[in-house]
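tokens incoming
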């Protein structure tokens, strides 16, 4: 088994003194894709917030290449190579695509290589180069989602935390977003992906964790999950 690039051990976290996540453990090898699936409101986004430093742990640890990162500030976690692409667009609506992308390179190391980073983003997401002068509020939903991913790449992400990138999009646009995710993997990025629809990631993820009420209730290969209709019906209503 490949050595883990990102490792989470017995993680607990929550809000206002109440744990939402309890005892979660997972690992991702470099270049791998691990998916977190489960019902809405059961802690998937909270897990990504904890990894990215937006939420302090109440227990457990997070390591990147064997080094603890759970005590770092969010900007330090970004500098270490972990970038969180949150649910929804969260773009600056009156700024252009280019200006939104540039906001991703806010750390000094990334800013010093702005032109090179932009070319890398455009190589992976050529549509953004065509739209670079367009105001973000006039983009389609899929294009806005691509800008969000591109902004994360501007920070030189090694590990990308993608929170439901297909949310609210038409099926044909979802296919395009997953083509982008495939391209991210081919470029060597490591991906932790939150997705409500297990069938969408079953043939793409190296490993799937089913999160329910803040705990992993099932873990395994995507094909194994799809072969368990009773689990899908109980936890995902499918």
């Amino acid at each position: 088994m490949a050595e883990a690039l990102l490792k989470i051990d017995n993680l607990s976290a929550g809000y206002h003194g109440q744990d939402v996540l309890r005892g979660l453990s997972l690992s991702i090898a470099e270049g791998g894709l691990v998916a977190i699936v489960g019902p809405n409101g059961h802690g998937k986004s909270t897990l990504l917030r904890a990894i990215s430093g937006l939420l302090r742990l109440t227990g457990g640890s997070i390591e990147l290449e064997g080094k603890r990162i759970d005590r770092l500030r969010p900007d330090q976690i970004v500098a270490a190579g972990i970038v969180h692409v949150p649910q929804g667009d969260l773009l600056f609506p009156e700024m252009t695509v280019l200006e939104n992308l540039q906001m991703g390179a806010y750390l000094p190391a990334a800013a010093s290589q702005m032109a090179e980073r932009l070319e890398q983003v455009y190589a992976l997401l050529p549509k953004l180069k065509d739209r670079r002068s367009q105001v973000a509020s006039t983009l389609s939903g899929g294009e806005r989602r691509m800008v969000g991913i591109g902004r994360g790449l501007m920070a030189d992400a090694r590990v990308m935390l993608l929170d439901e990138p297909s949310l609210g999009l038409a099926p044909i646009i979802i296919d395009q977003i997953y083509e982008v995710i495939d391209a991210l993997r081919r470029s060597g990025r490591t991906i932790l992906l939150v997705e409500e629809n297990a069938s969408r990631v079953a043939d793409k993820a190296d490993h799937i964790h089913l999160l329910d009420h803040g705990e992993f209730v099932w873990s395994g290969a995507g094909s194994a999950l799809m072969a368990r209709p009773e689990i899908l019906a109980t936890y995902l209503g499918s």
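note: The chain has a mean pLDDT of 93.
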